[in-house]
Amino acid sequence: MRSEPAHVTDNSAIVIEEPRTDDRRLLARARRIVVKVGSSSLTSIKGGISEEALTELSDALAAKCNAGTEIILVSSGAISAGLAPLGLTKRPRDLATQQAAASVGQGLLMARYTQAFGAHGVTVSQVLLTADDLMRRSHHQNAFRALNRLLNLGVVPVVNENDTVATHKIRFGDNDRLSALVAHLVRADALVLLSDVDSLYDGPPSKGAKRIAQVDGPQDLEGVTIGSPGKAGVGTGGMQTKVEAATMAADSGIPALVTSTANAAAALAGEDVGTWFSVNSGRKSVRMMWLAHLAHVQGRLVLDDGAVKAVRDNRTSLLPAGITAVEGTFESGDAVEMVSADGTIIARGLVNYSANELPQMLGRSTVELGEALGRGFDREVVHVDDLVLV
């Protein structure tokens, strides 16, 4: 919904106020939007895919697409869709059975989307991603090129985590976080997260809690009780992961809206529904987003006061001279946390040495280490390009 034009009396020109990134009305005119829908909105354990829910969502997205907006749909539901055909009565906990269910369900889900979007003359494609595809530079570039070309061709990419091959260590964990990374990857104008809850509330809605219409920063969420996965039993996230994903997006320069699947059309029209997360930072690289929010931390490096100041305040690389202790078991290239003496987390980064190599290096300069231990030991422990403050 656009603002009323203001008339300038001296020349009768019409000035139209343009919506900003703190204004959900930008969804009405956005060029490119990533939409994520959860399993609980599309499927159930007993009934599999809900034709009615999937068709209603596809109708809303196809209409937006035909109006000129590029849509990327991040859709959960593959594992859930595969449960009934496999005779499973609940979502499996072991990875192998999850992979089997995803393998069966993904084809069923895509068949339904192909039919529902096709009724509006819109072509869809399947894009399956792992965390590796967004973290490795060559894979990241290929993923961007493929998605961008599909959008240029007028196709709606339907993205899902590649559950069939993903391992515990490299999984996104849920499609909410995946959607935030995809939004950043394709340089979307906004992210819309859909579930079976119409908005974020300041407590349980059943107890008279009030809707939170807009979040401009962490202070707006202080004291808010955020729910876990719902009763459907087919999802992995809940409101908690949606808030985390919306915050990830907003922190990287992309506004986000959290609302219900039933509100999809109204949300895309810029109407006052759901909870809007306004931008509060400039855009980060996908790699830095992953490191800050998703990386599987393998250990800790305890820093002295000088190193804390250098890393946090001066944004420099971490050198061995500033490390006082090493915790955990990790190899070169793993993600570690950097903490102060009192345990406060300062940053996360990709370490250049293993946990076995570092103890002999603590408190020593890189020059001294190079002379004493040889080439390869004169590098930073964590380079500033592989480090993100948290």
Architecture overview:
Helix 2 (51-66) packs across helix 4 (95-118). An eight-stranded mixed β-sheet has the order 7-8-6-3-9-11-12-10, with helices on both faces. The chain is globular. It has twelve helices and 17 strands. Helices cover 32% and strands 19% of the residues. The chain is α/β, with parallel strands linked by helices.
Question: What attributes characterize this protein structure?
Answer:
alpha/beta; 390 residues; globular; 8-stranded mixed beta sheet; single chain; 12 helices
Structural class: alpha/beta
Tell me about the largest β-sheet.
8 strands, mixed
* Helix and strand element order: EEEHEEHEHHEHHEHEEHEHEHEHEEEHE
Which strands sit side by side, in order, in the main sheet? 7-8-6-3-9-11-12-10
Number of strands: 17
**What is the arithmetic mean of pLDDT?**
84
Strand content: 15-25%
Detail the poorly predicted runs.
Answer: 1-19, 229-236
Question: Number of helix segments?
Answer: 12
Quaternary status of these chains? single chain
Question: Summarize this, please?
Answer:
With 390 residues, the chain is an alpha/beta fold.
